[in-house]
Amino acid sequence: MRDPLLNEALRRLAAEAATRFTTLVAGGDQIPFDVAEQAGPDEAFFHSYVPLTARYVREREAELRSLPAFEPAREAVALAGVAAPYLEQRGEDVPAEPGERAARLLTVFIASLWDGCTEFALDRERLESALAVLDAETGDVDEAEIVVVPLVGLKMSVARLQLPHGMQLVRADSFEAPIEAMRSEGMGRAAWEPQFLAIAEQGEGADSAAAALRQLGELISVMRLFKGGGVGLGPYAFAPTGECSWRRIATGAPAPRGDGYRLSAEDVEQLVELAATLEARPDPAGALAWAVHRFELGCERASAVEGLSDHLLALRSVLDGQGPVGASLPMRAAALIADDSTDRLAARERVEAAMELERAQMSGGSLEGAAGLAAWVEESVRRILRDAALGELGTDLNEAADETLIATGLDGGDVEIAVTAQDVEPEPVPPPEPELHRPTPTSEEEHDMDQDTRVLEPVPAEDEIRITATNWLDEVEVEGSTLDFPAIEGDVSHRERIDTPRVHHLFPVPEDADWEVRELKYEHYKRNVS
Prior knowledge:
There is one protein chain. With about 525 residues, the chain is of the alpha+beta class. Helices cover about 40% and strands about 10% of the residues. The strands form 4 sheets. The chain has a 5-stranded antiparallel β-sheet with strand order 5-6-7-3-8, covered by helices on one side. A two-stranded antiparallel ribbon has the order 1-2. A two-stranded parallel sheet has the order 4-11. Helix 12 (about 330-335) crosses helix 13 and helix 12 (about 330-335) crosses helix 15. The chain is elongated, with a radius of gyration of 47 Å. The chain starts with a helix and ends in an 80-residue tail after the last helix.
């Protein structure tokens, strides 16, 4: 026993029970018995008496509870927390109250000590054997080395298949497993067909058994992505807790379809390759993870028709988003299902028919031809999700489908397709510079111009400061030389007005300013040249 307190408490209770029941029998109590037939020579049958000692102890549970060692033993059992698994293993009722649950274990344990005996002598060897069984049946499953689960529906040609992460698929007759794991009932096979087991190695630490069960669940996901068929984990897993002792663990796995799952020799090699590739890749995340889960729910339905909505939901989750091309869901799905334009058009029509079939299911309409169409949808979704899990379609299936449509020139055609241009922010364009026009001169201005005066005026506008300037070349008195200057300085049309937004800040104008230059008059003096 791992718990010395529990070990000692059970020993004391067994010793006191042996004394009490021996006294009762000596006082006149009768041990009930049963009559059994035994085969003899010449096909003759002899009758024998089988004592029902265990029943005698159960019927006198009150006597057992009155013993001084009973209460300490019950406290030790409750503290160890071993009552529930021990009673479940024997098919006994498990009381809800912890104290009563511990008391029930003590009654069953003491009754098993003398089952089939004619007297209540305390056999030390028998007691040690019963304690070892209790130890094994209540052992911690997280300390086991492996977890074994019967597989429902699996049929394959090889006796053992090694998979990544230490998992194996083995035929049950080549492995020492509990008898409960060998039953054919509910396993999707005939009694003469071999049963296959899935085995996962456990790690160390708490919840290692639960982690091993999750690995086996992921193996079922890989098998469903690989090919169609009904395959799943059995309702119970088993962990070895001692020599010839197994602890049963509920898997919580739903029952798969009843059509079975067959692996040929070629399938076995491909399955191993797929499992190894997926093991090296990160787990699906986001919409893809949700789609895989929904796809599996569809595979667990009784038929492909009942799983049609699940499979269409899986498609919608990964193909009903935004993308470079505003294609419909059937068009995108067809782009990933088929390889050429002709097949793509047919695939799109079948997806549209599947959506109509889903609406017919909702309204209770006709389901004619539903089985074949639903099976095709399931296989198509399996192919898309498998390629996506392998990384062959990138991280966004919407973009992958749209890129396929663009690359093929939208051969299938879709009136709802509209290419959306990407928004590109244009480069800022500077405002056009105003063009200065020379106004039509008046008679007075013509006179001034005749006297070598040039008037520069910008285009009149509201709130505009008008500027005039003289011919600055007249002020240059350099003889025998030329003046080089940028061409723009002599180009009136390229001069900037000071009220443009780009240069307005250089010439601040008070708000109360009232500037208006109506006319500038100049007096010109001519030098007499002799």
